């Protein structure tokens, strides 16, 4: 589960204890570092804030699959030294995954290679954000226009660096277009599973109204080609969500 709320502020430890209490032991979170660390401090002079954040999410234990470092689009290849220093000093009892949005990392092979080297030193993953389906043609709704303004337009990336690749995918308002656009991602997930990797795929649409149904659809498509994939639990009636 992508925990986007942590991007806006470090949660209280009590709130995180509640998340842990509401989820089974095999539930997987990927929690974002607060934007204070990634965007305002740009990974510098944030030792206290990082310690406070890691202390707050400690109750998740192994449920915390990775710490997600989402960097601003202005974080360029010339800033890789800062990222390398941050990752080198970050506690090793956590795994890390980095999302970059500067187009040079996707358009310039040397920039991509340099980033991969930085990540490989600490066994960190690169989280690509696949917006190809979103930008395939002009928006037709307010939600799509809003996504066009906010989401990065970068080249698709399909290379995994670790045993736990993570991909973000955003489609369109149209379920059919969203599903058609992720055909390659189903094949990629099957390939990674066959290689013994454990991928995490985040599926978005501009309004996210169909996110849960789409996740089940994606899982069914992957399972059809990889029968060893564990089944999803049956949905059960529940009270309104209280996790976040």
Quick overview:
41% of the residues lie in helices and 13% in strands.
Topology summary:
Elements: E1 2-3, H1 5-8, H2 13-22, E2 29-32, H3 35-40, H4 47-56, E3 64-70, H5 80-89, E4 96-99, H6 104-107, H7 109-120, E5 125-126, E6 129-130, H8 142-150, E7 166-170, H9 175-181, H10 183-194, E8 200-204, H11 211-225
Parallel strand pairs: 1-2, 2-3, 3-4, 4-5, 6-7, 7-8
Helix pairs in contact: 5-7, 10-11
| Beta content | 5-15%
Q: Mean pLDDT, as a whole number? A: 93
Percent helix, as a range, is 40-55%
The best one-word shape is globular
Based on helices, strands and strand pairing, what is the structural class?
alpha/beta
What is the H/E string? EHHEHHEHEHHEEHEHHEH
Distance between the termini: 11 Å
Low-confidence stretches: none
The strand order across the widest sheet is 1-2-3-4-5
Give the biggest beta sheet. 5 strands, parallel
Number of continuous helical runs: 11
Q: Let me know the number of strands.
A: 8
Radius of gyration based on Cα positions: 18 Å
Protein name: DUF72 domain-containing protein
InterPro entries: DUF72 (IPR002763), UPF0759_sf (IPR036520)
Pfam families: DUF72
Task: Please explain how this structure is put together.
Helix content is 41%, strand content 13%. It has eleven helices and eight strands. The strands form two sheets. A five-stranded parallel sheet has the order 1-2-3-4-5. Strands 6-7-8 form a three-stranded parallel sheet. It starts with a strand and ends in a 19-residue tail after the last helix.
């Amino acid at each position: 589960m992508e925990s986007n709320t942590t991007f806006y502020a470090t949660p209280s430890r009590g709130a995180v204890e509640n998340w842990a209490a509401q989820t089974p032991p095999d539930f997987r979170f990927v929690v974002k570092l607060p934007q204070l660390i990634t965007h305002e401090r740009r990974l510098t002079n944030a030792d206290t804030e990082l310690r406070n954040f890691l202390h707050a999410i400690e109750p998740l234990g192994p449920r915390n699959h990775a710490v997600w470092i989402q960097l601003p689009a202005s974080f360029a290849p010339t800033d890789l030294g800062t990222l390398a220093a941050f990752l080198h000093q970050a506690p090793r009892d956590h795994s890390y995954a980095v999302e970059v949005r500067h187009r040079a990392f996707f358009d310039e092979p040397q920039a991509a290679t340099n980033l991969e080297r930085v990540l490989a030193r600490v066994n960190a993953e690169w989280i690509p954000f696949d917006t190809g389906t979103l930008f395939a043609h002009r928006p037709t709704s307010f939600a799509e226009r809003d996504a066009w303004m906010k989401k990065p337009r970068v080249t698709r990336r399909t290379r995994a660096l670790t045993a736990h690749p993570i991909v973000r995918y955003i489609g369109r308002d149209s379920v059919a277009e969203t599903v058609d656009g992720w055909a390659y991602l189903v094949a990629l997930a099957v390939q990674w599973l066959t290689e013994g990797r454990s991928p995490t795929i985040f599926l978005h649409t501009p309004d996210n109204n169909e996110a849960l149904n789409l996740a089940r659809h994606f899982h069914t498509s992957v399972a059809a080609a990889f029968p060893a994939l564990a089944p999803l639990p049956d949905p059960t009636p529940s009270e309104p969500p209280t996790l976040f």
